[in-house]
Amino acid sequence: MSGTDEPLLRVEGLTKHFSNDEGLFGGFKRNPDGMVPPVVHEPELVRAVEDVSFDIRKGETLGLVGESGCGKSTLARNILQLIKPTDGTVYFKGEDITAMGGESLRKKRREMQLIFQDPQSSLDPRMKVGQIVEEPMEAHGMLDDEGREVRAKELLAKVGLDPQHYNRYPHAFSGGQRQRVNLARALSVNPDFIVCDEPVSALDVSIQAQVLNTMKELQEEFDLTYLFIAHDLSVIRHISDRVAVMYLGQLVELADKEELYENPQHPYTRALLDSIPVPDPRSSGVRGVLEGDVPSPIDPPSGCRFRTRCPELIAPEEYDLSATEWEETRAFMRAIDRRTVETNDPEELRRRFFGQVPSGEAGTVVETALDHLEREEWEEAADLLVAEFAEKSICAREVPAYEITPEYGSDTHYAACHLHRDEGIRLDPKTGERADGVRTADSGTEASESASAVSDD
Ligand SMILES: Nc1ncnc2c1ncn2[C@@H]1O[C@H](COP(=O)(O)OP(=O)(O)OP(=O)(O)O)[C@@H](O)[C@H]1O
């Protein structure tokens, strides 16, 4: 099932900030040595999700992928209004559900269900499977006792379980079977939309495919729309029609599945795809391919959040650097910033990093940094290089959001990367609409201007 063009769900500029003011020591920080008081209470904001916009079409599966901690679950809980967003809007069947509360939201929730990762802990061990499946129907006043029992047994059969197991307890089931119970429970209230948050991650690989196949069959039969969250790209590929990639609270790429896997256009997506685990126990996965650590969502990088780890950071326009000079300068900046070199001898550093130190202003910056290093002023050298080269890049100055021409199929391809500033259509990162105000064919009116005429460079 690949869905229609009609969006079932529209997410616009969704943002969620948490205060880290929770728990006994939440928000308390140690003051630098000697300062009074020794501890201060300064809660900070965890920018878990920032300006995320996308649609999910009726009948499709949108896969959402990203490393642990990038905000996938927070986004899911915001979409379902289990937690209220800090900003932004979620439209379900055209209605703004962020503005809803109380009984109207409770009613809406029947149409939007959630399946969690851990089938062990999401099923109450004291309840029989039949009761578990019937509970949501009871909560929403659906059917009478007898009717619910009949429906629960039917659903158990639909998800591939024996209806005779209606009176068994969850502990009698395997992990895969428990996840099937969860599916039956979610389906019991006849929803249109199911958020599946890592539903097969806790299962053996051999079981995963079976559960995914059942989910696909159920989607077909019950006309379901899925938001399918996983960190595993092979699982996402198996189930999705389109795929969204998330990094540090933001969407970096969204495209048709084939387009995303065959023609990835964001350096982060490419790094993730390069790190799909091969059957080698020594393979270290994503972190082996990407340099550096994921920055803190308390103080995320400006502009493109991936820029501090991006192998394709764009050179500042004010320096006239060749590709080789920029590559060498970046390697030098990284090494000094991360202190991965021992020597501070300018001659040695010039030889190690540069074929020839760039001429002009960029060269002056490099030479000034080398002077600092000669005086053992590592921090000054690193700060200067980062301020002059990293922070002046367009990647640090502007939030990227572009629509680019897909190579596979005609579906839109969104890439939040300034490498597309020349050929892409600049979008408003908050609404996902064209930044020049011209409405796209999707939004009802014609867009006849060429992409290059509206690109923002
Ligand atoms: N209640 C909360 N208070 C403060 N910070 C939070 C809270 N919930 C989540 N976060 C932070 O928000 C960020 C996103 O977390 P989230 O659980 O949404 O990521 P995820 O991609 O779903 O990760 P995982 O796959 O590990 O579940 C993390 O930095 C997390 O520590």
UniProtKB/TrEMBL annotation:
PANTHER family: D,D-DIPEPTIDE TRANSPORT ATP-BINDING PROTEIN DDPF-RELATED (PTHR43776:SF7), TRANSPORT ATP-BINDING PROTEIN (PTHR43776). This is Putative ABC transporter ATP-binding protein. One of its GO terms (molecular function) is ATP binding. Residues 427-439 have a biased composition (Basic and acidic residues). Keywords: ATP-binding, Nucleotide-binding, Transport. It comes from Halalkalicoccus paucihalophilus. The keyword ATP-binding applies. Belongs to the ABC transporter superfamily. Residues 427-457 are annotated as: Disordered. Residues 9-273 form the ABC transporter domain. Residues 440-457 have a biased composition (Low complexity). GO terms for biological process: peptide transport; transmembrane transport. It comes from the Archaea.
